Amino acid sequence: MKAYLYCDKRSLNDATNFYVGMIKESLNNLGYIFIICHKIQDIKSADLIITITDTFFFKAKLFYPFKKTIYWAQGVSADEAKMNGISGVKNFIRYIFHILAEFLSVRTCSMLLSVSDRMNLYFKEKYGYNSNHNVIVPCFNMKLSEMFNLEQYSKPSFVYAGSASVWQCVDIMLDVYEQIEKQISHATITILSADKSSFEEKIRMREIKNYEIKYVPQYLLNEELHKYKYGFLLRENHIVNNVATPTKMNSYLSNFIIPIYSNAVDDFCKNISLEKFSLIMSCPLSVDSITDKIITFERNTQNFKDYKNIVEKIFYTHYNRLFYIGIITKKIQEIGL
């Protein structure tokens, strides 16, 4: 039996490759040969087609309407298109296409892989999806680091790993850090990003002194992240964020960083409990409120050995690769793919 992952080359990166690897191992366990292809004509002999975007699912269904399919919904593409703006004919047509393609993907796939309970509810409310042919696997791509060093918490060092995109709330983040630095003069922030010029411009607009902006390749990211105490992961309350499971949380926790995040991400509220180390912020985000909460936490004495135990528990229950391979394999058997 042959299973083809049909996708755009650009869809495969460090985060998606890890997730795809779990699907591949599940299918290999059931006797499938797993093949990645990027051209529609290459999947004629497929017994099963896997896609990771609604656009590619639409193409696969158009050419091979009777093939069995697995659709991995990484996000909610129609609302993402709307979030990016639908003014103008071209953008509006793209938005309508994603509504149709997403509807087709969710309603006709043989098996749906979604990233959160909230995403399932979204599909049920919007498209009437109500199937037991579903597995929920959060997005993650790092295992828990074997290194734990209390020195990591010795100073108020902050990190942000990501782009300068508006939806990442980087302006609020920098406003918060600016206020922190005014009250804790030895605080530092490091931006790990390829968008150096964008961040330089944003920082010039603020009274931030102790900063560094640099790009770190993926293979060195773990080593780099172990240098910091806090990691920013702020999101506003929007359906695109509500259903998501940003890999940044996994990256921070895998290196024992304390994440500063918001309750916009439903999955984090349900599955990430950091107990006394929780720095979860309420939406709508308030610079003053976030700043006060961080400074209060920083000024309190904590036993960070307890934090290690809490993070280990999360990786055992929520970021457990073998567990998800097992449930994907079991569901494929149940469905009879």
Task: Please outline what is shown here.
This protein has helices spanning 14-29, 54-63, 77-83, 89-108, 117-127, 170-183, 196-204, 221-225, 239-242, 247-254, 266-271, 287-299, 304-317, 321-335, and strands spanning 2-6, 33-37, 48-51, 68-72, 111-114, 134-136, 157-161, 188-192, 211-214, 230-233, 258-262, 279-281. It has 337 residues and is of the alpha/beta class.
Explain how this protein is built.
The chain is of the alpha/beta class. It has 2 domains: 2-138 and 320-335, Rossmann fold (3-Layer(aba) Sandwich); 150-317, Rossmann fold (3-Layer(aba) Sandwich). 45% of the residues lie in helices and 15% in strands. It is built from 14 helices and 12 strands. The protein has helices spanning 14-29, 54-63, 77-83, 89-108, 117-127, 170-183, 196-204, 221-225, 239-242, 247-254, 266-271, 287-299, 304-317, 321-335; strands at residues 2-6, 33-37, 48-51, 68-72, 111-114, 134-136, 157-161, 188-192, 211-214, 230-233, 258-262, 279-281. The chain has a 6-stranded parallel beta sheet with strand order 2-1-3-4-5-6, sandwiched between helices. Strands 9-8-7-10-11-12 form a 6-stranded parallel beta sheet, sandwiched between helices. The protein starts with a strand and ends with a helix. The model has no long low-confidence stretch (mean pLDDT 95).
- CATH architectural group of the largest domain: 3-Layer(aba) Sandwich
Mean pLDDT: 95
Query: Helix share of residues?
Result: 40-55%
Taking Cα atoms only, what radius of gyration do you get, to the nearest Å? 21 Å
- List how many beta strands DSSP finds: 12
Identify the CATH homologous superfamily of the largest domain: Glycogen Phosphorylase B
Question: What is the domain tally?
Answer: 2
Characterize the biggest β-sheet. Answer: 6 strands, parallel
Within the largest sheet, what's the order of strands?
Answer: 2-1-3-4-5-6
Order of helices and strands: EHEEHEHHEHEEHEHEHEHHEHEHHH
What oligomeric state do these chains adopt?
single chain
CATH structural class of the largest domain: Alpha Beta
- Could you name the CATH topology of the largest domain? Rossmann fold
Low-confidence segments, given as residue ranges, are none
- What is the first-to-last residue Cα distance? 10 Å
Structural class per helix/strand content?
alpha/beta
Q: What overall form do the CA principal axes indicate?
A: globular
Number of distinct helices: 14
Strand residues, percent: 15-25%
